[in-house]
């Protein structure tokens, strides 16, 4: 038996493919699950042997008094529900992006401090074997001074066909907040979280409102309701003089989906896909690839890291200042796109 009582708020995609398998792989039972749709909640409860099902998250917190909660809800609900769980005495693992504004993110971390609890953003792609290998290369100093980074999360045809990702009222943004946040976080973690100071960004809405595109994906959304971007690009300047380019799309005319980070330094460069180091050795251009990497179940690694932090055995693997910098960049990108100019990153 586990010494912790875990609850899940939201039984949708993130809970099904990340949080529930993560806790199961970590050997941690889940005591309760909540969703407005009781049928969905009960289905997951049956599949994962969860004894208690709720449709009201406040009632669940009051009745169950969980030690920790996973918040797996649409982006616009993260702030209210996470703070509610923290104030109820639970540690919180909240889906990405943590919030829809920097102010909200600060308020959430302030609530965690006041409650003496842990708040951690669910950025599980740091746990990929390829990213872990490149992190060791970067930490070795093999790249010298890092001056340029690129982070890509590009789908050829991949507008979500579930949930309400296509509505600003629910999700706040499109692929930048859905998948771009993952690669941005991975990139910032790899380059040791430099301070962003200015951002210039462009967002595009080229496919989501087209009926023929919706038809290709089972008419899973109403094109008339699609009001988020389906492509975004941002150029980030850091305080140390380095820069980062972030690209994200749900639809793009490219050869295949592309998810990865590349980093350039004065002594070498790396990519995560494929995991490789490019440099000069003894006056000769040299490429080193990293093969036979140990397979990593990213969701399980995330759950284990969070649970260790909850038990006081380690610090949270995703730190507050890292999450805040990711949030600062994302919000500055949307502001830049709206205003059509480069903007300062606000704290």
State the order of secondary-structure elements, H for helix, E for strand.
EHEHEHEHEHEHEHHEHEEEEEEHHE
| CATH fold group of the largest domain | Dihydrodipicolinate Reductase, domain 2
Strand line-up across the major sheet: 14-13-12-11-7-10-9-8-15
**Proportion of residues in extended strands:** 15-25%
Q: What's the end-to-end separation, in Å?
A: 43 Å
CATH homologous superfamily annotation of the largest domain: Dihydrodipicolinate Reductase, domain 2
Structural Rg: 20 Å
Q: Tell me the helix content.
A: 25-40%
CATH hierarchy: architecture of the largest domain = 2-Layer Sandwich
Treating each run of at least 4 consecutive H or I residues as one helix, how many helices? 11
Shape call: globular
The whole-number mean of residue pLDDT values reads 96
Q: How many strands appear in the DSSP assignment?
A: 15
Would you state the CATH class of the largest domain?
Answer: Alpha Beta
The low-confidence runs, each spanning 5 or more residues with pLDDT under 50, are: none
What profile does the largest beta sheet have? Answer: 9 strands, mixed
Which structural class should the secondary elements be placed in? alpha/beta
Structurally, the number of domains stands at 2
Structure in words:
The chain is globular, with a radius of gyration of 20 Å. The strands form two sheets. It has a nine-stranded mixed beta sheet with strand order 14-13-12-11-7-10-9-8-15. Strands 3-2-1-4-5-6 form a six-stranded parallel beta sheet, sandwiched between helices. The protein has 347 residues and is of the alpha/beta class. Helix 1 crosses helix 10, helix 5 (102-115) packs antiparallel against helix 11 (320-339) and helix 8 (175-190) crosses helix 11. It has eleven helices and 15 strands. Helices cover 36% and strands 24% of the residues. The protein folds into two domains: 6-122, Rossmann fold; 126-298 and 327-344, Dihydrodipicolinate Reductase, domain 2 (2-Layer Sandwich). The chain has helices at residues 13-25, 38-48, 57-64, 78-87, 102-115, 129-139, 168-171, 175-190, 211-216, 298-310, 320-339; strands spanning 6-9, 32-34, 52-54, 68-71, 91-95, 119-122, 146-154, 196-204, 231-238, 243-249, 258-265, 268-272, 275-281, 284-289, 343-344. The N and C termini lie far apart (43 Å).
């Amino acid at each position: 038996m586990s010494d912790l009582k875990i609850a899940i708020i939201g039984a949708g995609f993130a809970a099904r493919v990340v949080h529930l398998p993560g806790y199961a792989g970590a050997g941690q039972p889940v005591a309760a699950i909540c969703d407005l749709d009781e049928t969905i909640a009960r289905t997951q409860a049956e599949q994962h042997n969860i004894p208690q099902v709720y449709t009201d998250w406040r009632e669940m917190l009051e009745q169950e008094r969980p030690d920790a909660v996973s918040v797996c809800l649409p982006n616009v609900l993260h702030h209210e529900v996470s703070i509610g769980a923290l104030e109820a005495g639970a540690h919180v693992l909240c889906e990405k992006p943590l919030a829809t504004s920097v102010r909200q993110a600060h308020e959430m971390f302030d609530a965690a401090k006041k409650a003496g609890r842990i708040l951690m953003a669910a950025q599980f792609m740091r746990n990929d074997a390829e990213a872990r290998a490149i992190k060791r290369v970067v930490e070795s100093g093999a790249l010298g001074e890092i001056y340029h980074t690129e982070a890509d999360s590009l789908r050829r045809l991949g507008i979500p066909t579930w949930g309400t990702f296509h509505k600003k009222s629910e999700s706040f943004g499109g692929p930048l907040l859905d998948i771009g946040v993952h690669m941005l976080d991975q990139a910032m973690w790899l380059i040791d979280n430099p301070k962003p100071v200015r951002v210039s960004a462009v967002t595009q809405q080229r496919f989501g409102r087209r009926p023929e595109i919706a038809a290709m994906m089972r008419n899973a959304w109403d094109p008339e309701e699609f009001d988020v971007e389906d492509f975004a690009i941002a150029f980030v300047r850091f305080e140390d003089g380095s820069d980062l380019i972030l690209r994200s799309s749900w639809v793009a005319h490219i050869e295949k989906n592309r998810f990865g980070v590349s980093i350039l330094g004065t002594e070498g460069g790396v990519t995560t896909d494929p995991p490789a180091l490019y440099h000069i050795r003894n006056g000769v251009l040299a490429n080193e690839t990293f093969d036979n990497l140990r397979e990593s179940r990213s969701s399980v690694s995330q759950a284990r890291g969070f649970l260790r932090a909850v038990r006081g055995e380690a610090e949270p693997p995703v730190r507050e200042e890292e999450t805040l910098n990711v949030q600062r960049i994302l919000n500055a990108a949307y502001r830049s796109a709206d205003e059509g100019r480069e903007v300062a990153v606000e704290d």
